[in-house]
Write a structure and sequence with these properties.
The protein is an alpha+beta fold. It has a domain of 110 residues: Nuclear Transport Factor 2, Chain: A. It is built from nine helices and four strands. The chain has a four-stranded antiparallel beta sheet with strand order 1-2-3-4. A hairpin with a 2-residue loop joins strand 1 and strand 2. Helix 6 runs parallel beside helix 9 and helix 7 runs antiparallel to helix 9.
Length: 196
């Protein structure tokens, strides 16, 4: 039996590491649905991501906001996810009873301290002053006026927001993934963050 254990070389951690790497790939792509396929149903961290995406979906209605606004909104959301984690490295993969703990050192953008509201308010105020006459002419056609406003403002607003995202500080932190067995596969049950 001892010879058999030595010959096998212990337990491979490749599957668990691959799951975590997939998590970062899916996050970068902003594919929350795929993230949910590699996580347990009770993973509240994924629920938070799904809630964010659902809150953004209200701005994706072409009939309300127009195609230009929706296109710019989609580009912005893609940019947010693509740049959230700027780099990562798997630190360790260790068995924890029937589960596995995967520690990843990451560098991620600090989106919490971004002030987007003040810039957006300024852009809207300036637009109203500069286009007052045009908007007054469309006052009788609410739909036409809203379409013009959203078409005109979308590139500038989302451009300013994208700039804020790019300027956000990158911070060093660690993510601790707990993986649980699911047949022959592994699922992420929790993701804990702590500063490196």
């Amino acid at each position: 039996m001892i010879m058999g254990v030595v010959a096998c070389g212990g337990t491979s951690t490749e599957k668990q590491e691959t799951v975590v790497k997939n998590f970062f790939d899916y996050l970068k792509a902003g594919d929350i649905e795929k993230i949910s396929t590699i996580c347990t149903d009770d993973n509240s961290d994924v629920d938070d991501l799904l809630s964010i995406m659902e809150s953004l979906e209200e701005y994706m209605d072409v009939e309300i906001y127009g195609q230009t606004f929706v296109d710019e909104a989609n580009k912005f959301v893609d940019h947010v996810f693509a740049n959230y984690v700027t780099s990562y490295e798997i630190n360790s993969v260790e068995a924890d009873g029937d589960n596995y703990l995967v520690i990843a050192d990451i560098k991620m953008k600090d989106y919490n301290n971004i002030d987007i509201d003040s810039d957006t308010t300024t852009i809207i105020d300036n637009y109203q002053q500069e286009h007052l006459d045009e908007l007054s002419e469309l006052a009788g056609d609410q739909q036409a006026m809203m379409e013009k406003v959203f078409d005109d403002l979308a590139p500038e607003i989302f451009g300013a927001m994208t700039k804020k995202i790019d300027e956000a500080e990158a911070i060093d932190t660690q993510l601790r993934f707990t993986l649980v067995p699911d047949g022959e596969n592994w699922l992420i049950s929790t993701i804990e963050q702590k500063e490196a």
